[in-house]
Amino acid sequence: MYLKISQNSNSGQGIAFDQDNNKIFVDNAILGDEIEAKIIKKNSKFTLAKIIKIINPSKIRQEPPCIYFKNCGGCNLQHFSNKFYQEFKLNNLQNALNRQQIKYPQINFIEIGKNSRRRITLQIDHNNKLGFFQENSHNLIAISDCLMAVSEIRDIIPKLQNLLNKLSRKLIKSINICQFDNIIEVIFNLQKSEIDINDNEMLIDFANIAKNINLYQRYQGKITPIYEISKAYINFGNLKIYPDNDIFLQATKKGQNAIISIIKDFIISNKIDNIIDLYCGIATYSFSIIDNIKDSICFEGLEKMVDIVNINAKKNNLSHKIAAKSRDLARNPLKNTEFENIDLVLINPPRSGARKQIEEIASSSIKNIIVISCDMKSFCQDAKILVENGFNIDKITIIDQFYYTSHIEIVTIFKK
């Protein structure tokens, strides 16, 4: 069937209309494409088609740089030209804000680009092939490279496949890889509780050959070392922060630094002294700006994270300036009276947003808020609450650290 793509959905799928004006969604299609397509799924809610042949490619289509593009479940916007790609992301955020009737200034866009992801998860099939799942399936697409990852992780991928070729089958179900500032950590997620002697020796040999790698195994949530050279750390200015295994880091170091720069510029220009850091994680932002403020009170729901913050504050002689407290902010948000004498609130909510906490902040005496959000929908819902309570968006920035996907990181400064 012949289709002409007339628009793209918020997730990036091409949209065409049949003769009855019903929407047809087409993966890997772009505005202006003329294609021969085949219906692969149809129900009362939507119709999904796939491209059989591109008859006339759109002028804004580019050749995808990745050889796995058509099959892999990630990076689904590689066929968008750079100009259209940025416009697409900007328009998505603008439309979402407009739907909530939220006024905003010009949206800034910071491009991160490929070769930047410092953490990835690789899936393993029953034949020990390594790769990513196809979208909405558990069909594994075997890979030997990932253009989005930093070069140090890209170098490890084929070495991991060579290792898997030798290891027992049905031992490992997935692999987490994370680059810290001094070392790469690899966590093997196991399907059974123990690794036999032969497999363990091959893992240690792999670590020796690969160099500068810590290896761990995880079974039923418990992580234990296989081969550990040194403790991983992250540099925040002159500080060395030692996190634990498998903690949350922003997807890219460049994206993290862009967020820190926005926060630091605001703090310096507005002479901020006292802050509260909500959903602080390992207090990435508080540690990064500590030289520019008097103190930061950090709140986090996970005890593990709270301990990491306080231990590192003590190691760096900062316990008088940074203190972390355990609190489930979704169930027990800080009350509006707890924000007295605070100059700025930093909040990095979960993907679902932070409605209850935002409501308390909105009714408090706080005048300055910086929201770091990875979900456009929940961000707009939270932003609407703030705007309805007298806040205005002073600055809003897209950090494009989820390159070639429809996802964005949004950093927004609200002032009252």
Tell me roughly what share of residues is in helical segments.
25-40%
N-to-C terminal Cα separation, in Å?
55 Å
Arithmetic mean pLDDT: 95
Note the total helix count: 8
The parts where pLDDT drops under 50 for at least 5 residues are none
What portion of residues belong to β-strands? 25-35%
Spatial strand order of the main sheet:
7-22-23-21-20-17-18-19
Number of distinct beta strands: 23
Q: Estimate the global geometry from the Cα principal axes.
A: flat
Radius of gyration: 23 Å
Query: What structural category do the secondary elements indicate?
Result: alpha/beta
Biggest pleated sheet = 8 strands, mixed
In short:
This protein has 416 residues and is α/β, with parallel strands linked by helices. The protein contains eight helices and 23 strands. It has an eight-stranded mixed beta sheet, with helices on both faces. Strands 10-9-8-11-12-13-14 form a seven-stranded mixed beta sheet.
Could you walk me through the main structural features you see in this protein, from its secondary elements to its overall organization?
Helices cover 25% and strands 30% of the residues. With 416 residues, the protein is α/β, with parallel strands linked by helices. The chain has an 8-stranded mixed beta sheet, with helices on both faces. It has a 7-stranded mixed beta sheet with strand order 10-9-8-11-12-13-14. Helix 2 packs antiparallel against helix 3 (197-210) and helix 7 (355-362) runs parallel beside helix 8 (376-388). The longest helix is centred in the N-terminal third of the chain and has 18 residues, at 82-99. It is flat and about 65 Å long.
